[in-house]
Specification:
InterPro entries: PROPPIN, WD40/YVTN_repeat-like_dom_sf, WD40_repeat_dom_sf, WD40_rpt. Keywords: Autophagy, Repeat, WD repeat. One of its GO terms (biological process) is positive regulation of autophagy. It holds the Pfam family PROPPIN. Helix content is 7%, strand content 44%. The chain contains 3 helices and 33 strands. It has a 5-stranded mixed sheet with strand order 1-2-3-4-32. A hairpin with a 4-residue loop joins strand 15 and strand 16.
Length: 409
């Protein structure tokens, strides 16, 4: 199978990603959206999905599709107007509200408390309960890639985003208490990817160079692990993903190789404190951090000497325009799932011994898949299950979600 788009094999998927706990794959395409359960991918030979065409709402060409865990609440960014965020309840097929911005929305992240919207030069924070804007972080360093992540564990809402356009500094912001928490330098080069673990106690980072991946403690910013993805081949890191137990970290890129790293301390390994306090404002903190930053040559030698290589690798059939990786625990077994923009999801069993992983399943996904059919309960089908015991707002209650329109910026 060719991994690149051609005139005979166009890539029809605009967006692909996993939800907060990696139980759902979210697909956005030219007519609407689709959701696939990762448990079905592991267990069944023919996939079903939840999804629908949104052309009747004028929301064709979905550029961003994010779902709140396994509830019926989702957000959509359409190519029709990428400056508008649509909050949608897909069981009742109602648009709960729209939020309009002065620039295109690049990234959206949700948890059970907050919705965070990232533009290239500012970040907006909304309350999930009533969709009211709580705070806006203005004049952030230019972030054209929309690099941002939000913790998903209950009662916690830390945001991570680039703190500089010159170096790979990470800024942490508390979206519950609406205050800056910490800023630390993670890489010499600018950031390309950020990802929290499910407990919100660690964050994985990669720079635009893509050769070194690091893991830091949250919120302290102490370096815990450092991994070398490659020596001389610079790549674009598309995604990072922790396993549910935080014992492994996977990365995918614009190459055909998915890397899995083992988060295991070796004897003599000590955490390296690199955090700086936030007492004088985060911009001041960044300036102080720059002044103490190590010379480039020294840092490069240190990386080469101390970095661990990947514990395991999985080979995709080819490189694609984009892809997303997730580590899944299913029936006491770890699996690596990689969903690609050309409409496939590949499943590998993570061998405890590591090494080259075997491909055990391959499914076609996307709007024109021959093997997929819509669920007979389209589009809802009990989507509010699997929400644990957390209180999720009633999306059908007009007191919780009155129709509204909001212009930001």
């Amino acid at each position: 199978m060719s991994g690149t788009a051609t005139e005979e094999n166009p890539e029809l998927i605009n967006y692909i990603g996993f939800n907060q706990d990696a139980k759902i794959i979210c697909v956005g395409h030219k007519e609407g959206y689709q959701f696939y359960k990762t448990s079905d991918i592991l267990e069944t030979s023919e996939l079903t999905y939840e999804g629908e065409s949104l052309t009747h709402l004028g929301l064709n060409n979905c550029l961003v599709v994010e779902r709140l865990f396994s509830s019926a609440l989702m957000v959509i960014i359409s190519q029709k107007d990428p400056r508008v965020l649509h909050v949608y309840h897909f069981t009742s097929r109602n648009i709960i509200c729209d939020h309009r911005f002065n620039k295109s929305v690049l990234t959206v992240r949700m948890n059970r408390d907050r919705i965070v919207v990232c533009l290239e030069d500012c970040i907006y924070i909304y309350s999930l309960k009533d969709m009211k804007m709580m705070h806006n972080i203005m004049e952030t360093p230019m972030n054209k890639l929309g690099v941002l992540d939000l913790t998903s564990n209950p009662g916690n809402a830390l945001i991570a985003f680039p703190g500089s356009t010159d170096t790979g500094s990470v800024h942490l912001f508390d979206a519950i208490n609406l205050s800056s928490v910490n800023t630390f330098v993670a890489h010499e080069g600018t950031l390309a990817c950020l990802k929290f673990n499910q407990e919100g106690t660690m964050i994985a980072t990669a720079s635009t160079k893509g050769t070194v991946i690091r893991v830091y403690s949250v919120p302290q910013g102490n370096r815990l692990f450092e991994f070398r993805r490659g020596v001389s081949r610079c790549v674009t890191i598309y995604s990072l993903s922790f396993s549910p137990d935080s014992k492994y970290l996977a990365s995918s890129s614009n190459t055909e190789t998915v890397h899995v790293f083992k988060l295991e301390k070796t004897e003599g390994d000590d955490a390296k404190p690199e955090a700086s306090s936030e007492s004088g404002g985060w911009l001041d903190t960044i300036n102080k951090t720059f002044s103490a930053y190590m010379p480039t040559q020294v840092l490069q030698v240190g990386e080469f000497m101390s970095s661990e290589r990947s514990f395991a690798t999985a080979k995709l059939p080819g490189a694609t325009r984009s892809n997303q990786v997730a580590l899944i625990m299913h029936k006491n077994q770890q699996f690596v799932l990689t969903a690609t923009s050309d409409g496939f999801v590949y499943t590998y069993r993570l061998d405890p011994e590591g090494g080259e992983l075997d491909l055990i399943k391959q499914h076609r996904i996307g709007p024109y898949s021959d093997t997929c059919r819509s669920s007979p309960t389209l589009p809802g089908g009990g989507a509010a299950s699997e929400t644990s015991n957390q209180v999720v707002p009633n999306m059908d209650d007009p007191d919780d979600f009155p129709p509204m329109s909001h212009t930001s910026g």
